[in-house]
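= Protein in question =
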Amino acid sequence: MAQFQEMMRQQLESLMHAELEKLLDTSSSAEKEVSRKDFEGFKNLFHRFLQVKGPSVEWIKIQRPPEYSIQPYDRIAARGLPDNVADSLNKLVVVKLNGGLGTSMGCKGPKSLISVRNENTFLDLTVQQIEHLNKTYNTDVPLVLMNSFNTDEDTKKILQKYTHHRVKIHTFNQSRYPRINKESLLPVSTNLTMNGQNAEGWYPPGHGDIYASFYNSGLLDQLIAQGKEYIFVSNIDNLGATVDLHILQHLVQQPNGKRCEFIMEVTDKTRADVKGGTLIQYDGKLRLLEIAQVPKAHVDEFKSVSKFKIFNTNNLWISLAAIKRLQEQKAMDMEIIVNPKTLDGGQNVIQLETAVGAAIKCFENALGINVPRSRFLPVKTTSDLLLVMSNLYSLEAGCLTMSPKREFPTTPHVKLGSSFTKVQEYLTRFESIPDILELDHLTVSGDVTFGKNVSLKGTVIIIANHGDRIDIPAGSMLENKIVSGNLRIMDH
């Protein structure tokens, strides 16, 4: 039986290699070479995909990370900063993951170009933050954007507007991999182009691809040659992911031999984060455990806030020399995420992906740092957008800081209904963003609009029934209220 399975695997692999060669033959030389490099990575992933049997972790072997392997942020910050912070900053490169589109928020083009605060986009805020650092400390911290084939062209057009800012900006593209038919396990594309239906045949393979594509682009070697030692990687839509000088200092001041090659910022789980990846000790190494790797029988246990208390923010600090070493030794090992999709025509495909944080187990002296929640401020929905556009935060040099007028540091829980999903619709429903300094919880459902200078406090629930519309009048103050149907306002 095992022999038969091995034969089947080899046959599938040979068929895949033949199909990839056919795809390469449909293209011109320049594109062909880029795709050939991409396909090398894909072949490796596909080979491992065929080998994998069952869950990638044995639940019984999972241990809590030892005390010293996840440091509280306060302990690191308490050491203070030396006078020569500029020296440390000059060893740093900021990398933002910029491969995603704004489609989930009803926007065309790269997500990083959505306006989030005072007409500033995610990209504007990132550039302002790094420029502020470079001016304050007289340093040269560059910004690197990892684009995908979905975002590259639009991003490059917009970069011209930053020519006179004090930030060097580089880009590289993550790989382009073929989606494979769920039944035949062969590519659905017939050629290398991105035209018409064929465009659906390709995907960017998750942010775990950063190591190979950064290395293949030549940019990694270029930055090492300039004396850069570490990258700070984060999602471009996490507005809390700013350069933290204490964490940087902790990295740089380690004695050689004990150098920490990888830091993952984690933060305490709340009920909203139960699906987030967590750090575990496994086979003597720190390892990222994602919900997709958890056997079905243990999913509830994984989600429990009492057993797994922290989750990965995807703010990562990684040694450039270590990435180069692991790439050259072909020792980068990340669990495969099998992502099923249905194409517009109804065809079922799978895409093989990896996550950047999963490589933590490959690096020496890896460490988790339990950071304040304020370093995790992702904008995934218009509910998140309402928070960052409101008076809950003030904006200075591209950084959002929670208002000192808010009595407790947690953010309110906001749930806006489907009428608010798209950014354009959401904006038309607010004449001005309400005052939410004292808000705990807001739920809005149905056709609801807000007049100017509305103030929301405590728990506010607004539900317009199907066919009804609720207009919250300008200047209203709702505190612990339920508003329903025909605009009856009740105490909550």
The chain has a mean pLDDT of 92. DSSP finds 13 helices and 26 strands in the chain. The two ends are 65 Å apart (CA to CA). The longest strand covers residues 310-319.
